[in-house]
Amino acid sequence: DIVMTQSPSSLTVTAGEKVTMSCKSSQSLLNSGNQKNYLTWYQQKPGQPPKLLIYWASTRESGVPDRFTGSGSGTDFTLTISSVQAEDLAVYYCQNDYSYPRTFGGGTKLEIK
Amino acid sequence: EVKLEESGGGLVQPGGSMKLSCVASGFTFSSYWMSWVRQSPEKGLEWVAEIRLKSDNYATHYAESVKGKFTISRDDSKSRLYLQMNSLRAEDTGIYYCTKTARASFAYWGQGTLVTVSA
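^ Those are the sequences you sent over. The predicted structure of the assembly is below.
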């Protein structure tokens, strides 16, 4: 199984700050046939189900603000929020969408000062 | 608008069975792979099972932890997804989400239904 490791487990920032969080996979998520990385990011706000943020490592889902950016390839990935807003309070999860079983990271909890 | 609404959760004793249901609307249900994902404080988010299309002979995939215990199925005529859960154990406790595959495996999520396995 592909193990997804996220860091940090939590971080506290001030509104307007730039935030980066990491996701590492134990095996490459790169499909050599189409050169797409099958890494997905989700945002889960308190009391809500997860919501799709970014797929193929860097493609923003429709309606997601452009302050959210996904990057990386192979086994190392990053989610960046350019200027954190109060409504970004959530847990962010990465997920292996390359192979079965689909696996999730443990999440990064973002808190706003 | 895509809507997924789960039902059927509740309290069940260890060793018992339970069947979850998910009704879908806002899209052509029969054209999309569907999955169940569960969440618990102990294990976090965990993919449970996936079912593909009629054209795929309704092929299924399961997490190793539920293989042989859980059965995913669908009724395209009713736009419904099901999860039959047998031999339930405490570690099966959690919120069970119905999800739709689109650009990613879990592009849309329902609000979830809570399953509690306890004596």
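The mean pLDDT of chain B is 97. The two ends of chain B are 40 Å apart (CA to CA).

Shout if you want it in another format.
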